[in-house]
Request: fold
Amino acid sequence: MIKKFRLGNPIDTKAVTASTEIEDVKNFPLELTQEERLVVAFSLDNDAMIFGLGESVRGINKRGWIYESWCSDETEHTEDKRSLYGAHNFIVVSSENGKFGLFVDFAGKVEWDLCYSQPNEAKITLCGSDADIYFIDGETERDIVKQFRNIIGKSYIPPFWAFGYQQSCWGYAKPSDFTTVRDNHRKNNLPLDCIYMDIDYMERFKDFTVNRELFPDFRAFVSDMKAHNIHLIPIIDAGVKKEEGYSVYDEGHEKGYFCKNADGTDFECGVWPGIVGLPDFLNKEAREWFGSQYRTLIDMGIDGFWNDMNEPALFYSKKGLETAREKLRDISRADVDIWKYFDMRNAVTSIQNSMDDYSSFYHNIDGRTVCHKDVHNIYGAFMTNAAGEYFEREYGKEKLLIFSRASYIGAHRTSGIWFGDNYSWWEHILLNLKMLPSVNMCGFLYCGADIGGFNKDVTEDLLLRWLALGVFTPLMRNHRALGTRAQEAYRFSGTEKFADVLSVRYRLIPYIYKTFRRCSDEGDMMFRPLAFDYPDDRLARETEDQLMLGGECMIAPVYQQNKSGRTVYLPEPMTFVKLSGENVSSQKLEKGLHYVEVELNEVPLFIRQNKKIPLASPALNTAELDTENLKYIG
Ligand code: MIG
Reply:
């Protein structure tokens, strides 16, 4: 049962597609304070657990921390943080006394104090007084999620080839960087379907342009890659470079499609291209205009994109920069003591992604002027919807790949997400795992983390262990930052080990794809906490490093260095399978705790009693994958 409550006059976030009757606020089942800020509060038993909040740090059980829904270009995903790139305002509370779901449909900032200030109290504070709040009653966690998914519409399904293995790196620039990656994968029997183009392919970081010095004939280059079954996936950033004669900028400026200052002039800020205008994706006309720009690249043969910097990330605004310079000028006139030194440092660093800036520019939503800070959390989602809606309209469903860094619920219908700038840290394998069920709850099915880690230096064993989790995630992309240690699968001594793990992905694609489609259709989760399937089993409920996958499997990757295996908890008897290249070994295990050994070139998988899953023969890309002749294991 879903109950919808409307407080004030909320902005349409486009999260919910179903029309639900609005209930009298007097019947709201939790404590609700309606002042300048809406506050929802409830108390929890000692045993109660809280699931959800999509892309966030910390555990599968969210209890015991304070989170903020505020799309952020967060460079360090450590447990002290409160926000990451997405704003996913949905939780499920589960205790012996009952279970319910709560969705706060609100475009501004939301603070989730989940037993942080008080051990048994949850307090959700909205930075505003206009919102739709949904309360969902249900028997099980999974059923509550299904009801929620039912009102937000079906999840995006990418093209089939997007389930192949993908290689990315900030820094691939010239054609030979891409052909080298392609050829080295082939030469070493390493499968591959996509190579990403980061900002380096553009002309002076201008969206929808290609650097002609690097790519004199881009169309021919794209088609040559296609002939080798490789899809090139360029990045698109939110900001449009201010440059006279650059048609996208000129048109956006003339038609008034950029976000505005209070005085009606374009708000200007600095990102990779230098000074940019921020397209007003909340303005329908501007949104459609931006969406149609992707055509330039599609006409050259491109069939996939990733949208970046759309929280939006701001390095500085013109005003912020001026204030910083003034402060520095003042400081430079005085003697510098240690406090002045800190002031000096802060003067520069504090202007990035600053609340002052987010509070100072405006959108035009159907003629109504709205301050950015009140709609911040839907900005990136609307950018991606602009693209996704255009693609579907012009090219049909399941034709183009699109995923985004920033997101809000609703964007799950038009795109996927990736989890942003993680580190080459072992603990980030685990964080990757924990986010999967939470984002699935919110409808984001096509998702994954930067495998191997984005920031800092990878090691061979870290990458292999991470890939052994990545073989199960719909988006399986190895990506890293400029200047970090190279991490393509052919860069290490044990290339065959990588071939063993990557071929497991291709063997599993028919199963993963089918499960994915079913979950999109039925509003189900592909990855679930063990707690959802074994609600009466305390050990299962508290398990934070294993997940249920589809209706048949459980996964439990090794995520620590120098381990020959790991301890795993089986809530029921299962078949323990190790997959490696062509090899499959299996062993029946009883319910309970086990230590299982897993080599670096093996992918561990657990199949439930009386269940079977299909395996294909290994292939070097999805085009060559035989999806008909399958062998069943279990
Ligand atoms: O400020 O385009 O998360 O994947 O490689 C960094 C360069 C901008 C952030 C993305 C990352 C991408 C990088 N971008």
